[in-house]
Amino acid sequence: MNQETDVSTRRVILTMLKTKGALSVGDMSKQLGITEMAVRRHLNTLERDNLIESKLVRQAMGRPSHLYSLTPNADDLFPKKYQHLALELLEELEASLGESNVNLLFERRKERLIDRYGERMKDKPFDGRVQELAEIQNANGYMVELESTGDGGYLLKEYNCPISQVANQYNHACQCELVMFQRLLGPEAEVERKECLAKGGGKCTYAIRPNP
């Protein structure tokens, strides 16, 4: 296996741990289609680089198992979009002009995004709009997974938030995202947020259903 393939496999492992949470060597072996020995070789490298950590978990039956998860260092490998600078600027704005003006910035950003992406939604049916929204968010670094719920609706899951530090401090950013989704999908859709990264969730999850 060449060096480029090794790096690619390790990147896949990091992405799996980001999207699926803690996994065992056996779990990763099955999903990657490689031997457990090969998985351990990659894990040793990632542990050496302080990108993953392991925890011994006792099972109801059988031997204890090591579960691997990402360290805070690994989080820097995923899109962030200059959060520290943005947060400092927002804090300065809030100190000078008040929280309402910070919220106004998020509102204006929301309107610009709706204007930018609204054209891509035109003449599309409900399913097409949901697919388009998932593609838009994925292109913006949100690591989106779209899951059909089997009743005509979808769960849109965002495993990464490029503005997580900003959203943690200014929750209005999350509210604007919810409103943007509803506006882009139109009156034919009903959107409900089920889980939020900024409020301690493992991901942001939106339930999207056709509006009767």
Tell me what you see in this structure.
Helix 2 crosses helix 3, helix 5 packs across helix 6 and helix 6 packs parallel to helix 9. The termini are far apart. The protein folds into 2 domains: 69 residues, Arc Repressor Mutant, subunit A (Orthogonal Bundle); 129 residues, Muramoyl-pentapeptide Carboxypeptidase, domain 2 (2-Layer Sandwich), CATH 3.30.1380. It is of the alpha+beta class and 212 residues long. Strands 3-4-6-5 form a 4-stranded antiparallel sheet, covered by helices on one side. The chain is built from 9 helices and 6 strands. The longest helix has 23 residues. The mean pLDDT is 90. A hairpin with a 7-residue loop joins strand 1 and strand 2. Helices cover 54% and strands 17% of the residues. One of its GO terms (molecular function) is DNA binding. Keywords: DNA-binding, Transcription, Transcription regulation.
> Which regions are unreliable across 5 or more consecutive residues at pLDDT < 50?
none
What's the total helix number?
A: 9
Question: Whole-number radius of gyration?
Answer: 20 Å
State the oligomer.
single chain
How would you classify the helix and strand content by structural class?
alpha+beta
- CATH class term of the largest domain: Alpha Beta
Task: Give the mean pLDDT.
Answer: 90
Give the overall silhouette. Answer: globular
What is the CATH homology-level superfamily of the largest domain? Trafficking protein particle complex subunit 3
Number of strand elements: 6
Strands in their spatial order, largest beta sheet:
3-4-6-5
Topology order in helix (H) and strand (E) letters: HHHEEHHHHEEHHEE
What percent of residues are in strands?
15-25%
Number of domains: 2
Shape-level CATH architecture of the largest domain? 2-Layer Sandwich
End-to-end Cα distance, whole Å, is 54 Å
Percent range of helical residues:
40-55%
**Largest sheet at a glance?**
4 strands, antiparallel
**The CATH topology of the largest domain is what?**
Muramoyl-pentapeptide Carboxypeptidase, domain 2
Pfam families: HTH_20 (PF12840)
InterPro entries: ArsR-like_HTH, DeoR_HTH, HTH_ArsR_DNA-bd_dom, WH-like_DNA-bd_sf, WH_DNA-bd_sf
GO molecular function: DNA binding; DNA-binding transcription factor activity
Domain HTH deoR-type: 6-65
